[in-house]
Amino acid sequence: MNHVRVRDDECKGCAVCVSVCPKNCLVMSGKLNVKGYDYVQFVHAEACTACGLCFLNCPEPGALTVFGNKESSRDEL
Ligand code: SF4
Ligand code: SF4
Fold it and tell me: Nearest CA to 28 among 46, 6, 47?
């Protein structure tokens, strides 16, 4: 199953990824990270297409990593 890993402490809570995800797989957690930002959470993994839009639009390069599982191969964007 496709997966997006969120590094809570790298997220600045800007919600750009939430707004660009076409599948509504990302939501604000409502919890604060060590830097005081409401960080994002990955939900609805079954709907994620591993399109990479969240990763490509996130201003914090270390916050999101997209893993796509396709039959026998696994790609990391
Ligand atoms: S990879 Fe695409 S579908 Fe998956 S969470 Fe990111 S924007 Fe949404
Ligand atoms: S776009 Fe990046 S910094 Fe902004 S809420 Fe999403 S993961 Fe956090």
Answer: 6
